[in-house]
Amino acid sequence: xxxxxxxxxxxxxxxxxxxxxxxxxxxxxxxxxxxxxxxxxxxxxxxxxxxxxxxxxxxxxxxxxxxxxxxxxxxxxxxxxxxxxxxxxxxxxxxxxxxxxxxxxxxxxxxxxxxxxxxxxxxxxxxxxxxxxxxxxxxxxxxxxxxxxxxxxxxxxxxxxxxxxxxxxxxxxxxxxxxxxxxxxxxx
Length: 188
Description:
This protein is of the alpha/beta class. Helices cover 48% and strands 14% of the residues. The chain is built from eight helices and seven strands, in the order H-E-H-E-H-E-E-E-H-E-H-H-H-E-H. The protein has helices at residues 8-18, 37-57, 73-87, 109-117, 132-135, 141-159, 162-165, 180-187; strands at residues 23-25, 62-67, 91-95, 97-98, 101-102, 121-125, 170-172. Strands 1-2-3-6-7 form a five-stranded parallel beta sheet. It has a two-stranded antiparallel ribbon with strand order 4-5. Helix 2 (37-57) links the parallel strand 1 (23-25) and strand 2.
């Protein structure tokens, strides 16, 4: 994946042109796990530290959702502690799944337990499902797949009991709830 260039100064200039007072910084799809687990740990720390610098250097202009180096649960737990205790993040960004393991999976339970203990805000960011080549109809993945994958992730969190077990979490579902408003009755 290509990682676009970014600077806080250019972002603030764009915000000023568009009349935006404050932005919440987060790393979107494909997240920080681009290669091996050690690289993911390093990249998560790097982007979280850079985000904090932007928050400090531009008071009132930025907030920060920390990134976690999943699927390494131990490294994610360490990064949660660092982000909360040292960087004072506003919450965390979690992709809808990591290599096909959705957020409601038992593998992520220690992460959700710790986020719940800290009363964290979790912003769910969509990514492409592992089968996107077969379902995207040849269209750009964000057009359809991001909405459907957000829906899969939230349904998985609800039906697997993750949301019920962690009442102190505040969860932000993007894109006006994706397709959830249309299928809520079916899920219920």
